[in-house]
Each structure stands twice: as C-alpha cells, then as structure tokens.
Amino acid sequence: MRDLDHIPAPHRQQVLTVHVSPALRTIVAHLPLALEVHFWLPAAGRLPEAVAGLLKATLTCERLVLAGVEEAQEASVEVRSAECGLRLSGGELDGGLEGALQRVLTGVVQEEGMRHTLVRLAVIATTASTLQTLTTHMLATYDLDKALHMTLSGITAGWCLAFNRAIIFRHDADASCLVGHAAIGPASAEEAHRVWEDIEADSSGLESVIGLYSRARLESPLQHFARQITIPLTGGDDEIADALSDDAPTAFIDAAMRNPQLARLQTNGTFVLAPVRAHQRLLGLVFADDLYLPHGIDPVRVQQLGYFIDQTALIWENLELLQQQREFARRDPLTGALNRRELRTRLEAAVDHASRTGTPLALLMIDVDQFKEVNDRRGHAEGDRILQGVVAAALSVTGADDFVARYGGDEFVVILHGASPNDARVAAEWIGERVRQRLNVTISIGAASAGPDVRTSAALFEVADRRMYEAKQAGRDRFVD
User: Fold this and answer.
1) Strands 165-172, 85-89: parallel, antiparallel or unpaired by DSSP?
2) Could you tell me where the DSSP H helices lie in 253-370?
3) Does some domain include residue 355?
4) Which of 196-210, 295-309, 443-457 has the lowest mean pLDDT?
5) In the predicted model, what is the mean pLDDT of the chain?
6) CATH number of the structural domain spanning residue 468
7) What is the extent of the structural domain holding 98?
8) Based on the domain organization, do 170 and 233 belong to the same domain?
9) CA-to-CA distance for 39 and 68, rounded, in angstroms?
10) CB under 8 Å to 14, separation ≥6 — which residues?
C-alpha cells in the first residue's frame, strides 16, 4: 500500500481494516480523469467510515492521487479534478464509502448520468469478463462438482460479484428437498477481512482460483456446515417458496427468516436466493449474501447474478446428461453392475494401488450354479431376477471403494479393497447364504488375494477363476481360496 506514512498513526489501523470492494475499485479505474484527494483529519478518535474508506481507496486505486493530509478539528475531504472540486464534511460523509463516492462522482464528473453509467458499466463489464472466463473453463470440464465450484468462484470473486458467501443446494426430486452441496466463503469476520486483504494484494485474477481447484480445498467449515442442511420443499409460505415462484434471483432485504433450515445460515437479514432451472426443471438453488459487509446488496449485482445462474443451469444440465451417458456406458444394463470393459480398467488400477501401498486386495469370482437349467425351468424373467439378486447380494458386502462387475453371462467379479483372505471368506459366505435364502439358487465362488505371488491384475483374475472352477468341480455351492 503506497503512502501509508502520510496517515497519522492513530488512524492507520482503522484505515488498514477498511476494505474497498472490487466493484468500487473498478468504478474508479473507469474514471475519465484522475482525481486529487486532500484530507483534513482530527488528531484523535475514529474517522467517519467514508473518510477511512476514501483514504484506503486513495492509497490503493491508481486514478486517485493523494494530494495531502492535514490536521483539523473535524474530518473533511476535498476531491479535485482539472475542471472543478468538491469538499465533503459533516453529514455529507454519512452513508459510508459508497455514498461518499457517489457524491464525489456527482460533483466532480460533470456529465449528466455519468456516475450511474460508470457504476453499471463497471459491474457489468467485470461480470461479463468473469462469466466468459468461467464458461470457457466449465465447458472444458466433464466434472460437475468442478463446474459448480467455478460458479461459486465467480459469485464470490473480488473481480466480479464479490458476495461474501455463496452456497449451491442441489434439488433431490425423489425426496422433494434441497440438499447443501457446495459452498465458498469465510467462516468469520476475521477470515473475511483476510480474504479482502488478499484480494487487494493479489493481481493474479480468476484464472489462478480456477487453477487451484481441488476437492480437498473445498472441505471448508462453511461447506461442511452447508452439507448438513436439507430443506424440504413443502410448498409453505417462506423464502424458499418466494424464490422458487420466480425464475430471476430474489433479493431479501432486512428479512426475518421464516424457513428454519435456511435460518441456520445466520444471515444479517439481507441475502439473495436464485433458482437454477433448465427447461423448467429445477436443478438447485443458489444462496448468496454479504454477511460481513454493512451495506445492502446493489440491484445491479442481483441482476448480474441472474446471468451467472442462467449460464450455470445450461452447463449443469449438459454435464448431468453427459455423466448419465458415461455411467450407462460403464454398466451392464440388466444388473447395474460394471461391465467387462470397466472391470478391466478398475481392476488394473486396484492392483496397482495395492502394490504401491501394500494394502490388502481380494477378488471374488462368482458363478451361478447350473444357471442354464434354472433359466430353462423357471423362465428368462426369473433368470434375470436371479442375476439382479446376485449383484444385490454382492453389493451388500462392498464398501465405498469396492465394486461389482458382470464378467459375462452368469459370472460376476467382486473387488474388495483392504480385505484380507479371511475378510474375503466371510464376504463370500455371506453372499452365498443370502443368494441361497432369497433366490433359491446356489453359487460357486473362487477367491484370490494380491500379494508377492500375485502381482498383476491378470494373475489375480486367473487365480480366482481357477478356484471358482475348483469349487464347481468339488460339488458346487461352495467357496475355494
């Protein structure tokens, strides 16, 4: 920060803790002429907020030039251009930095409507630029979570809309509710101030924020809290109902929270809710607020937020459809198990991980006993139900990293990460018992574990497959390891 020594020591800390919003700094950057700013400051006591803010703006914005700082009984500011000047004091400094800057632009920039035009131009220009950057990156990713994180980055970025907090709730149509999914924002006023300080010091821009994306970075206190919020869509009379009744973002000013789940966010009463819809289908809801700022939310920012939401909705819908298609391509349409091609890819990755980390890994090879006879005797529809039931039984023993695949016909593969040979035996016995009781058929299972003698996916599969045939030759309805 330049010329900090010109600020009297009693006022330095106050000036340092003031933040100048990116929108205001952009407005100043678009001024058609440079302005000289002269300050008269009292020797002690707090400065009016507008004076402290103008001091900070003068020290950080290129189009404002510090002309001098003098001691006086009462704080006042004079702003001069090459053509005219304006002095603000007393009640003219009420209304904070934004109010003071509006008076300055009205008094010093003589053209009628120029101030209003500058404000709108600054916000719209930065929004359009940021939205273009985000859209380019969102279209280049196949990861919906990453795309949604980019949306939140634009809503909260200092280069754009600069909301303190932004949260995306995803719509669960089956449960008829909104579920907290992703969030960006500080968890305290102190953290918010550090963010603003970083914004003022960092010139790397939005590209760096996008480049630093990782799921680990998203595990913030705010996101953890947001994911605990589930909002039932009951059709009641509250903020959610009001927001969902309109396609555009809805701003709530000094509102008393009526929705108990939304109230958990502990807003200052001023916030925005924006439904995310694509072809009239509700995808989610965006919440944004300025919890740590004293002023209200400018209508221009609310309008610009709508453009973010419209673009996000289209990309969100396309990525969901793409994910569905990719998921269909990986799975067997009858049973929902992974298909043979996906099995090959994941099995190689699992064996490689086990080899590098020394983590146990087990593979179960399952075959339905005398399935052709069962199919002929009980019919193809019942045969399909049996295959689906075998997969359901296998899935009942799997964890988050495990998977079940259909190798072909009535043969299935189960991969169990972290499973010892004994764990594999317990899982196999459980699957066999469940199939026998619920489907009235039996299965033969062979098992293999990765280790010094089984180092490749091909070797692991070969061992399990051989043992499965040993189980069938030994009389079926058994497990061999």
Assistant:
1) unpaired
2) 299-330, 340-357
3) yes
4) 196-210
5) 83
6) 3.30.70.270
7) 4-110
8) yes
9) 6
10) 46, 47, 52
